[in-house]
Design a protein that fits this description.
Structural class: mainly beta
Distance between the termini: 25 Å
Number of strands: 24
Strand content: 35-45%
Number of helices: 4
Radius of gyration: 21 Å
């Protein structure tokens, strides 16, 4: 299983730490101030320098790749400790095929464009001597150090993708590493197989609400406290605008996941949810509140961790997530909201809601993408 202790390596340089702190301060999904990053791997390829950093935040272990000498935003992925503890392989992939030096597509064209380089990286357990990535029939050895791996491919074709990852142990034995390849164009991938977990509702909840939200009580943070502009919210431009909004952190152990819950529209009855993650967001609105809502958000096609998030109405006491490999994770529920990072290779999943007596009151299956 990949390393779950505090990440090794050396402290990042003062300049790199300051760069991270400045970027973090301007993020809607910021990590706690004072988060310390470690330098794990430095790789030179194609005239550019790539530095992989690691840090811990609450119950997350995170990897951040910064490129110097080539255009591109830093790549970031975070894994909950449960995912690493229960990993089926000695390597847990974080991101595959992250592009750097990506030119804009030709005007009025949907053609794929090739990046100058692409990066794949992740977490590595003790006892792994080598990690190889496979694409287009070619094999590349990744750089392995400080419980992490990094592979840089220079000038890949527009449609080239990593299709296999393999770990070699110190004993010489090689094992395949499960992951979800990044899509070529718009071709979402949904997992097949049976939906795990229980399938029957044991108690039907009647019409319900989220009391604190309906009565505009202060929970979490205001938009101003979270430094999120109203223009970032769903439906801010509609007639009536935003009647009420709060920013929630459902799981204190997952320090940067944020949900914005708002009431919009002329009467303020339309309930909206916006999930804000590392480099993106996603959400939607509804006038009806089911016992359990579930949204899936992915900030980048090669990221191996998707965020499952949503709301549970009053009457829901606890949540469990059932994964395709038979695992069951408890999911924190705070202020009727939840958010959990799920490895994409463990879909399909089912989120199950229980009342205070332990009876099943809601089930939300999801096959990923």
């Amino acid at each position: 299983m990949p390393q779950t202790d505090p990440l090794p390596g050396k402290n990042a340089s003062p300049a790199a730490q300051a760069q991270f702190a400045a970027s973090n301060a301007h993020s809607f999904s910021a990590f706690p101030a004072g988060t310390v990053v470690h330098e794990l791997i430095v790789e030179h390829a194609g005239g550019a320098t790539y530095v992989l950093y690691g840090f811990t935040s609450g119950d997350q272990l995170c990897l951040r790749l910064v490129a110097q000498g080539i255009p591109g935003q830093p790549a970031l992925t975070c894994a909950p400790r449960l995912a690493l503890v229960h990993s089926r392989a000695p390597v847990e992939v974080g991101i595959v095929d992250y592009p750097f030096g990506l030119p804009p597509p030709p005007p009025h064209s949907h053609a794929l464009v090739a990046p100058a380089a692409s990066a794949s990286f992740g977490f590595v357990a003790d006892g792994v001597s080598r990690v190889t990535v496979h694409s287009d029939g070619q094999i590349q050895q990744a750089k392995v150090a400080n419980d992490a791996f990094l592979a840089i491919r220079v000038h890949p074709s527009a449609a080239s993708r990593i299709d296999r990852v393999q770990a070699t142990l110190q004993s010489g034995h090689s094992v395949p590493v499960p992951f979800t390849p990044s899509a070529v164009g718009f071709s979402p991938h949904q997992a097949s197989g049976s939906i795990p977990g229980p399938h029957a509702i044991e108690r039907a909840l009647g019409p319900g609400t989220i009391g604190w939200l309906i009565h505009h009580r202060a929970r979490g943070q205001s938009l101003a406290q979270a430094h999120i502009p109203r223009s970032a919210l769903i439906g801010y431009h509609l007639r009536g605008g935003i009647a009420y909004a709060r920013v929630l952190r459902p799981d204190p152990r997952s320090s940067n996941l944020r949900l914005v819950v708002s009431l919009i529209g002329k009467r303020g009855h339309n309930l909206c949810l916006l999930t804000i993650i590392n480099n993106g967001s996603g959400g939607g609105c509804s006038v009806r509140l089911a016992p359990l809502t579930a949204n899936l958000t992915l900030d980048q096609g090669g990221n191996q961790f998707a965020v499952l998030s949503g709301l549970a109405r009053d009457g829901v006491a606890t949540l469990n997530l059932y994964l395709a490999d038979g695992e069951r994770w408890p999911v924190a529920l705070t202020n009727n909201a939840y958010a959990v990072e799920v490895p994409r290779d463990k879909f399909p999943v089912a989120l199950v809601a229980y009342d205070t007596a332990g009876r099943i009151v809601g089930i939300a299956p999801n096959r990923g993408f």
